[in-house]
């Protein structure tokens, strides 16, 4: 069975969650185990760290260390075992989010983030990263209609413009790994782009 590690990225409110469940269903219909998970989170320990990262005041280094600590536990307990048994793992956010939010958004040293990435992941990278890209203003309008904001969602458009440019930098560094989706379009057209990228890979 083909093991695949697919991650979903984008600024808050980009529309990732809307499509992950549908993609899981599509892949299940083709046979094989599909594991849906998220970061920060995905294990009991990592979900506790998620609560802190999303709600407790802290500086950018603390934030970066906590998301990587959560990631290490998640990789050890969930992602690596699932990939080893041949499952497809769909993960709502991964390390590109750390470069985008803590790196570009908060201004934290990306060299340090790169060192942590190497230590924590030991070379493991997603096979495909679906990046839901849209203007910060559009995402803010969607979030406003949807929910109570957490620590990140309270930040201004300038922060989310930096986060978006952080994703663009990661995209430029590894274009073969990324599928960039125009997430400003209506849901059906966003989904059609997701399917098109999978079909291009024969998935
Ligand atoms: N293409 C779309 N057009 C208009 N609204 C959308 C579209 N896709 C999703 N939405 C709406 O925008 C809001 C945010 O979507 P969603 O929760 O899927 O985003 P997200 O990227 O998972 O956000 P977060 O990462 O912050 O959890 C929801 O209310 C959702 O219904
Ligand atoms: C993995 C990761 C996440 N974040 C931020 C990005 C979001 O604002 C939240 C997660 O919320 P979501 O609704 O589940 O998308 O956490 C981060 O700053 N750094 C990271 O590495």
Automatic annotation (TrEMBL):
Residues noted as binding ATP in the record, renumbered to the chain: 10-17
Enzyme class: transferase
Coiled coil: none
Entry function: Phosphorylation of dTMP to form dTDP in both de novo and salvage pathways of dTTP synthesis.
Catalytic reaction annotation: dTMP + ATP = dTDP + ADP
Highest taxon of the lineage: Bacteria
Cross-referenced NCBIfam families: DTMP_kinase (TIGR00041)
PANTHER family (alphabetical): THYMIDYLATE KINASE (PTHR10344), UMP-CMP KINASE 2, MITOCHONDRIAL (PTHR10344:SF4)
Protein's recorded name: Thymidylate kinase
Assigned keywords, A-Z: ATP-binding, Kinase, Nucleotide biosynthesis, Nucleotide-binding, Transferase
Lineage of producing organism: Bacteria, Pseudomonadati, Pseudomonadota, Betaproteobacteria, Burkholderiales
Domain Thymidylate kinase-like: 8-192
Pfam (any one): Thymidylate_kin
GO MF term (any one): dTMP kinase activity
UniProt record similarity statement: Belongs to the thymidylate kinase family.
EC number: 2.7.4.9
Name of encoding gene: tmk
